[in-house]
Design goal:
Blueprint: H1 5-22, H2 34-55, H3 61-90, H4 93-107, H5 111-117, H6 134-157, H7 162-183, H8 188-193, H9 195-214, H10 220-236, H11 249-261, H12 268-273, H13 276-283, H14 285-301, H15 309-335, H16 342-365, H17 382-386, E1 400-404, H18 406-417, E2 423-426, H19 440-448, E3 451-455, H20 465-482, E4 486-489, E5 514-515, H21 519-532, E6 536-537, H22 539-543, E7 550-551, E8 553-554, E9 557-558, H23 568-577
Parallel strand pairs: 1-2, 1-3, 3-4, 4-6
Antiparallel strand pairs: 5-7, 8-9
Helix pairs in contact: 1-2, 1-13, 1-14, 2-6, 2-9, 2-11, 3-4, 3-6, 3-14, 3-15, 3-16, 4-5, 4-16, 5-6, 6-7, 6-9, 7-9, 9-11, 10-11, 14-15, 18-23, 20-21
């Protein structure tokens, strides 16, 4: 297929949708759909290349994967290497550990799987993960494992009518993949990240590639309609939309219309997308995509509070410069056999990958090199420490009954520091009174407990804390009917991000260092104190200073490893400042 400059322009449109969305640009609420534009383009180009080679009987799996490897990995490994060095200076051990995992997963084209397996309650927010965006590379590379063989066998099975056979086969898989999104719509993380629920977008490009071969039609109106569909998706869709799904058809159909019908150099859209500065951005779009996320994550990691959108927008120019250098001095040489031979480039990339995998494993196994950053040690594995509370689950005896999730286990650890272990733990969610119905064992334990403590995560920024407050009120009203000696331990938060301390001078890292909790936690706390009165024990109120800020170090150790859950030092702080200063003290023996 001849070179299409407008497709490079379309890549620029895709990558800047993603960048502007991640920068928090107002109105570009659906810019993340630029990824879907990329997927359609990738499906289109790869299928055309494979079909052209198959028709000439030149389809070589070894050649295909060699080209993909030399296309994708040089810039990827360069980015990971540089970010790995920088992160040693700006990441606390907990985030370094997670970063190490993502290095390994990214190199093995499995970061989408890692992100799914580590998603949910314990996951680090995506905006702080420098390699989060490599999930899209994983999806594409997993697709590359399948599509060459599918095309190869299609030409073997139906040598005389291959394109029709392949067309209907891909359409059936397309329908199955799209349907999968709705069959598993309750598992939003899974359908967002996994190949089978994303394959239909790549297949949309592959189907367009088959049609492209059969028709020779240019239609300015259809191609322009495709462009408008993509723009509409950027402004109409938002992160709360069900995606991938029907709304995803906007950029997918839009991209397919452009690649199919924007063939004439006289088309307005062809001229627009072929404008040299736009084509240039399209040529470096892969490096732009690779670099924007670690740069944006770095800005967040070094910030004590949520940085303004302006900082991200200013960072776009340096990102373009870095991306150009990556394209010129890394991407292009590795793809050019005259500069670096195929054998030499593959040898370099394999060794380079192995070194990074080894480094990533070290970060993971050493819990972010915490033994080498004594000032930022968590006194062991902090997640394992939180989970110690599970040993009290459903015990036969226990005067103090703790209900809740990991925040409840935090309170158990705080009680343990005071020598209290006459505890029973029920891991439940206190959202409605329904939790107590038809649960005789739980109700009996509640009635016989000296005191009942409820502790959960409330008011996280991605949750509606007013709805949570109403649900908690329904649950607590039923709880008080069973035991009037019941208390709610308030929510807690130790700032937007603790990584900023890595940039502070050593003399400032002590118990007097404080941060302001995220506003949603403070707002929930104020409303809860009014609603529940003395039966709501506010952690924030008991540990804050006169400036409404809370400590992030206690006894020269981190209070929390993720700004929410307690380390051993945090448990000692809560024991002293909260439990011993609250009505719960009266129930301790």
């Amino acid at each position: 297929m001849h070179y299409r400059s407008d497709i490079d322009g379309l890549r620029a449109l895709a990558v800047f949708g993603v960048i502007l969305f991640h920068a928090g640009t107002p109105l570009i609420t659906g810019g993340f759909l630029g990824v879907d534009v990329f997927l359609v383009i990738s499906g289109f180009l790869i299928t055309r290349i494979l079909m052209d080679n198959a028709e000439k009987n030149k389809l070589s799996f070894l050649d295909f994967y060699s080209r993909r490897f030399r296309r994708i990995y040089p810039a990827l490994l360069t980015m990971i290497t540089i970010v790995s060095i920088v992160n040693l200076f700006i990441m606390v051990p907990y985030d370094l550990k997670n970063f190490g995992q993502s290095i390994v997963a990214s190199i093995f084209s499995a970061n989408n799987i890692l992100l799914y397996l580590t998603s949910g309650y314990w996951s680090t927010s995506a905006e702080f993960k420098p390699l989060y965006h490599t999930w899209t590379l994983a999806v594409e590379e997993q697709y590359y494992i399948v599509i060459p063989f599918l095309i190869y066998f299609a030409y073997k099975i139906k040598p005389k009518n291959t394109s029709s056979f392949l067309f209907y086969t891909l359409v059936l898989i397309f329908i199955a993949s799209f349907s999968f999104c709705y069959l598993y719509q309750d598992n939003r993380e899974f359908i967002f990240l996994m190949l089978f629920s994303r394959a239909w977008e790549l297949l949309a490009g592959a189907i367009a590639a088959i049609i492209y071969k059969k028709i020779d039609t240019n239609n300015n109106y259809l191609s322009m309609s495709g462009f408008l569909l993509i723009l509409l998706s950027y402004f109409y869709v938002d992160k709360n939309s069900f995606h991938p799904g029907l709304v995803t058809l906007l950029p997918v159909v839009g991209t397919a219309l452009i690649v199919l019908f924007n063939k004439s150099h006289e088309n307005f859209l062809f001229k627009l997308l072929s404008f040299k500065p736009i084509v240039f951005l399209g040529l470096i779009s892969y490096s732009l995509y690779l670099w924007h996320q670690p740069v944006f994550a770095g800005i967040r990691l070094v910030s004590e509070e949520h940085p303004q959108t302006l900082y991200f927008l200013i960072a776009i120019l340096p990102i373009i410069l870095i991306s150009y250098l990556s394209w010129k001095f890394i991407e292009k040489p590795f793809r050019n056999n005259a500069i670096i031979s195929e054998r030499k480039s593959i040898s370099i990339l394999v060794i380079w990958s192995a070194v990074l995998v080894f480094y990533g494993l070290i970060l993971h196994k050493s819990y972010g090199l915490q033994e080498y950053f004594k000032k930022f040690s968590y006194e062991g594995n902090p997640q394992a420490y939180v989970d110690q509370g599970y040993k009290y689950t459903y015990r036969e005896s226990g005067r103090i009954l703790v209900l809740g999730n990991s925040f409840g286990r935090d309170i158990i650890n705080a009680l343990n520091t005071l020598g209290v272990n006459d505890i029973k733990y029920y891991p439940i969610t206190c959202d409605t009174g329904e939790v107590f119905k038809n649960n005789d064992a739980l109700n009996t334990n509640i009635k016989h407990a000296d005191v009942v403590i409820v502790a959960e995560l409330w008011a996280a920024p991605d949750q509606n804390y007013k709805n949570q407050l109403a649900s908690l009120n329904n649950c607590f009203s039923e709880l008080k009917k069973l035991n009037s000696h019941s208390y709610i331990i308030g929510t807690k938060n130790f700032g937007y991000n603790n990584n900023f301390v890595k940039l502070l001078s050593e003399d400032k890292i002590n118990d007097s260092l404080t941060v302001k909790p995220i506003h949603t936690y403070l707002e929930f706390d104020d409303l809860a104190k009014k609603m529940f009165g003395e039966q709501y024990i506010s952690i924030i109120n008991l540990i804050k200073n006169t400036d409404n800020e809370v400590p992030i170090f206690y006894q020269d150790k981190f209070v929390s490893y993720d700004t929410q859950h307690l380390t051993p030092a945090g448990a000692r702080l809560i024991a002293k400042k909260v439990i011993l200063e609250s009505p719960i003290k009266g129930y301790l023996k």
